[in-house]
Design goal:
With 138 residues, the chain is an alpha+beta fold. It has one domain. The strands form 2 sheets. Strands 3-4-5-6-7 form a 5-stranded mixed beta sheet, with helices on one face. It has a two-stranded antiparallel sheet with strand order 1-2. Helix 2 links the parallel strand 4 and strand 5. The longest helix is centred in the middle third of the chain and has 23 residues. The chain starts with a strand and ends with a strand. Keywords: Signal. Pfam families: DUF6497 (PF20107).
Length: 138
């Protein structure tokens, strides 16, 4: 599901609209190639305004994270890559430019905002400057 403020839109409907508008013909469950070579698929995009301004959250499933060779430091490059090559091209089709883009990887699909001790999740925040994702230290 994709949530926008108080409204909810079906993931597939928005994802297809974003993919079509962004000129991408891949299905939403197709693997996305990332620098580490791990399998990654798009789960959902959520946007809101949590006090810091408009934030877009692009959530991905990467089943190998948390395993040997797929720790946080090993996938930081994947998150920046996903921000620049997956999230940024879809912003023009999505709406206004956000103050922040958050990229998250989890080892299994999860519900946004619901803690699950069995799911490993990594995330990073970026600002957008001249069409490029700039990493923000939390």
């Amino acid at each position: 599901m994709v949530r926008a403020g108080g409204g909810v839109m079906q993931r597939a409907g928005l994802a297809m609209a974003v993919l079509v508008a962004g000129g991408v013909s891949a299905a939403i469950d197709d693997p996305i190639k990332v620098p580490s070579g791990q399998p990654v698929t798009f789960q959902e995009m959520i946007w809101d305004e949590p006090g810091q301004g408009l934030t877009y959250r692009f959530r991905f499933v990467a089943p190998e994270i948390g395993q040997a060779g797929r720790g946080f430091e090993d996938v930081m490059g994947d998150m920046e890559y996903l921000c620049n090559t997956y999230a940024v091209p879809r912003l023009a089709a999505t709406g206004p430019v956000p103050n922040q883009i958050v990229i998250s990887l989890s080892n299994a699909p999860s519900e946004f905002g619901v803690a699950d001790p069995d799911i490993t999740m990594f995330f990073e925040a970026y600002t957008l400057q001249d069409g490029t994702c700039i990493w923000e230290m939390f």
